[in-house]
Amino acid sequence: MEEQKKNNTWIWLVIALMMVIIGGLVWWNLSQRQELNELVEQMTIEKEELQEEYEDLAIQFDGYQQMDIRNDSLQDLLSREQQRVQDLLEELRQTKASNARRIAELKKELATVRAVMKDYVRQIDSLNATNARLTEENQQYRAQNKQFKEQNTQLSTANAQLTETVTRASMLEVSACTLTTLNKNDRKTKMASSIRKLQFNYVIAKNITCTPGLKNLYARVITPEGNIMGESESKLFAFESGEIPYSMMQEIEYSGEAFEGVCYCPLDEGQTVQKGFYTIDFFCDGNLIGSFPFQREGFEPPVPFSTSVFKTDAIDHSAIFPQKRVQRYYKKLTYTNKKIKK
Q: Which of 143, 189, 204, 302 fits as disulfide partner to 183, beta carbons 3.0 to 4.6 Å?
């Protein structure tokens, strides 16, 4: 009986020990499971944080791609790294949170990509700084070039004006001209019906800057109707961009000193001196060097005149350009003749 009690005691001791062991195992299992859950939860958080970092990095790459990067090689590298980030992000999304090893590898990949991106950012900043400096220098060069062009234009204008001044200074100038009317016997007459020839006595002013030598002097006598007296198809001379008719031509020897000359303009058969303004224009070396209007007596003169049959006044041709002077004077002459006819 006593031995039976001892056996029962040992049995209960074994049962108690087993219960303690089982309880310890259950507690340990629950503890391990709790730690595992906490670890999985921590890995999930790390995965989410890592995913957010990848997404931020992808956004940064998108921003750099939209920048005006004028470097094809760097642009290609950025595109490659951007695609790499997209691939890693997609892989991270598909990786389980419990896969700690792969998540750690992806974390290292992220650090590598960040380091590469920092280097690219440094290159981009350097390029942008260089581009900004070059842009500023280019603007400065453009401003200087514009200034140089303006100075060149001013110099060209001044040179043209100087050339024009020298050209005008070297031009001959008919400073005075008088008109005498002659009959068929080359005698002076005051009767309009007897006038058969017009005699023009002119003076070419002294000009030591003009090249001396033989020169062709052309004269055009313009009637009140605007016709050229004595014109013909063979009597043409070059003026400006074309040829114009002349009434008389003389070859003179000019030495630079004042020169006095005379030229004659005969009237055509049946032609008479009409009332109104007559004009004689002198040309030499392709330039208009003198223009003088004459008015038949019987009309109110604009200024005092010296002759009884014709009244005259010289035009100062030194203050305006020849071509403008011709246009202005002919326009004024035509307008005056129309008023006289009316």
A: 189
